[in-house]
Structure formats: C-alpha cells, structure tokens
Amino acid sequence: MNVGPVPGASVDARRHGGRKLAALALGVMLAVTACGGGETGPAAEGKGKDKDSTAAQSKQSEAVIGIAPKDGAESVKTSGALKVDATKGKLTEVVVKAPDGKEVDGEISGDGASWTPSAHLAAATRYTVHAVAEDSAGRTAAEDSSFTTLTPKNTFVGTFTPEDGSKVGVGMPFSLRFTRGITNPDDVKKAIRITTEPPVEVEGHWFGNDRLDFRPEKYWKSGTKVTVDLALDGVEGRPGVYGKQSKTVSFTIGRSQVSVVDAKKHTMKVERDGKVIKTIPITAGAPGTETWNGKMVVSERLKVTRMNGATVGFTDADGKGEYDIKDVPHAMRLSTSGTFIHGNYWGGGAFGNYNASHGCIGLRDTRGGWDKKAPGAWFYENTMIGDVVVVKNSNDATIAPDNGLNGWNMSWEEWKA
Fold first, then answer.
1. What does the pLDDT read at residue 309?
2. Are the C-beta atoms of residues 157 and 238 closer than 8 Å to each other?
C-alpha cells in the first residue's frame, strides 16, 4: 500500500528530516568505530605526546658535572682553584683553553670522577672549560663554563744565561737569576721545562732562593740542541708575588773544549774533541793568592778590561788596590769573585816557570793584544762562552759551585738532592 505525504508537511521539510536521520546514523556508526578501533583527534594526539616526552626524559644522562670556579668567576687563583668532577657518571673529556687556543694540560683520574690541571694557569687570562661525562647506560652530558684569573700586583722575572739562539761550550748550564727571593721553589722549578735533542736527563739545582741552574750529569755532547720553556706566568713564587714570563729559549752546544791547567807544572793543555791541540805555558796564583782548584766555566769574554785589586779585596795600607791595570787584554771570566784567564804583557819570565798572579791564570800576550799568535790572543780567539777550564795541583781549595757557573764541582747526587 502506498503511503502518501504527511498532511501539512512540505516536500523540503521531508527532505531535511531525512538528512538529519542519516547524519545521526553516521554519528552512531563513527562512535562505535572509535570505541572499537582506537582514538583519534586532539585527545589521542595529546596522549601520543605524553609518550614521546616520557621517552625523551628516559634518554637523558644521569651524569652530573661540576666545574670550579663557578661560571663567570673573576680574580681566580692561578693554582688550586680549577677542578672538574662528575657524579653518577665518569668524565670522558675535559678541555680548558686560553684565548689563544692553547690548552691547559691535565689528567682525568683513573675512576673518571675528577680532572685536575697538571700545571698552574696564566695570570689575567680568561679560560673556557668544556667537560663531557657518561653515565652507566652510556648516555652523555656536557657542561661549559668560563672564568678569569687574577691580575697580580707584585711580580718577578728570571734573567738567564746563555742567550736565546747562542752556541756555547759543553760546560754551559742554563742559569736563572730571579728578581725576588723564591719561597715556593718546587712550583717555580716545575714551571720550567727543558728538552734536548738528542735526549739527555737534565736536573735543576737551587743556589740560595734566587738562583736556579740546570745541567746534565756530565758535560753536554757536542751538537746537542737545548730548548727551555719558561712558563712562569702565573706561578706564585712567594706569597702574593707571581711570575710574568712566558718565553722559549733555545741554544746549541758547539765543539767540546776542556783546558786543563797544572799549577805546579805551569802549563795548560787545550783539549778539543778529545785531542790535545795545544800546550801553553802559564802563570797561576802566587803563594798566598793561589788559584782555585776545580772545574770552571767561561762565563764572559772581554777583549780588553780594567783590573783593580780593590774590587776583589787586594788593597794596600792606604786602601788602594795592590794593582790597577787599565788595559788587560783577552780576559775570560771563570768566577763571580774575580778569577779570570787572561792575556798578560807584564809577567816577564813567569810563564811556564813560576806562579806570580793574584789568583788569575796568565797567558803571555802583548799590550793592546796586537800579536794574534801570542798565547793569550790565540786562546781568546779559540774559546767560547761555556768552555771548561780545569785547574789542578794548586795549593788552594776547590772553587764553590755557585762561584760562577761552576756547578760541575758537585756530584750528580748532590746536584739532584
């Protein structure tokens, strides 16, 4: 049976009512599908994000890095202040740099818990620190920091010999004189690094609190190249007094020359590279003013110089020098106290026959040094700073190791003590 139109309802109304029923049915179907097939829409997206956030959180390292001093610190001490550590993990990398890119040497402890620098820091310098640590699961954490070291009010430097770039004899130590007395000698010594080619052990020895000399056990080998790194900038030499040098010095060892003076025989044998090349008649210190025995290093060469006895304690009753020679030729210093080996034009027949000096070693020479064949002139021209002169058979004691560059008069054990 056919059903006709609902009385009073238009065709459009009937059409709209059909659409509403269809939409309602579709909504019910979608709800059923959603309940049975998973979530969609904003709620589902939110739950997915929570899962990602939890996963990311679980991937973070548990390692915690500590850096001292704190980030941005100023006026930091150059020693003892810088430390890096790790908890709940182990340090795998620590890089500390100055503005010029130079890295600070340091070492991570065996258990990975800490890092400490192996040397002091420079003064008035900004350092950056980058540290990485790893936890037990292999996850890494990193930390960065920076700080600036103190600017010292009081400083010291070391004057040194030999000069940079020089060629010297086999007896030449590297000798430093400091402008302030040092009360932290180990810290200062540690800041001076000496390397040689070919390699040889070099040790330092303090004379008092202001002089530090370095030498090998035996005379240097000819041709040895010596490099000295003076990393004194920032070293606290005494309370509140810091070094301000950062310098590299290099020198080379020339041919070997060791001359042996026999005060009894009044001769000197000049030995070059193991062979005697010349025997020279000499005059040494007279009775009462004998020449020191021992190994002495030539520390200064003067073509002509004035020698006045008053400067070394030889005076007459009026307080004047027992001698005053204004033009001593070809003088080479052997001690701080005034011992020289030099040309002598006034000695007459003393050379090779008897000792007549006030402690120096005299070689026949001419006034003005014009005769290049005279022994004094020849020895001067064939001697360099750092050559060794050994005196034996003199009626005097052995020269003190710190009287000139004469540390060779100490045994190796004494030197290292």
1. 73
2. no
pTM, to two decimals: 0.81
- Here the tokens at position 81 are 């202040």
Residue 78 DSSP one-character state: S
The radius of gyration of the chain's CA atoms, rounded to the nearest angstrom, is: 42
Q: Measuring CA to CA, how many Å separate 299 from each of 8, 199, 282, 296, 303?
A: 133, 25, 20, 9, 14
User: Helix H segments across 170-217?
Assistant: 185-190
DSSP per residue, 308-361 = EGGGGT-B-TTS-BS-EEEEEEEEEE--TTS-EEEEESS-TT-TTT---BSSSE
The residues near 328 (Cβ < 8 Å, ≥ 6 apart) are: 304, 305, 306, 307, 340, 342, 343, 344
Band (pLDDT 50/70/90 cuts) for residue 44 is very low
pLDDT at 313: 76
What amino acid occupies position 50?
D
Which residues, listed in sequence order, are joined to residue 283 by a DSSP beta bridge? Answer: 362
CA angle 157–159–160, rounded 5-degree value: 135
Helix, strand or coil for residue 26?
A: helix
Pairing between β-strand 154-156 and β-strand 140-149 as defined by DSSP bridges? unpaired
**Distance (Å, rounded) from C-alpha 76 to C-alpha 67?**
13
pLDDT at 26 > cutoff 70: no
Distance CA 238, CA 79 (A): 13
Go through 74-86 and write b for each residue having 16 or more CB atoms within 10 A of its CB, e for each that does not: eebbbbeebebbb
Per 3-state DSSP, what percentage of the chain is helix, strand, and coil (rounded to 5)? 15, 40, 45
Quick one: pLDDT band at residue 58, thresholds 50, 70, 90?
low
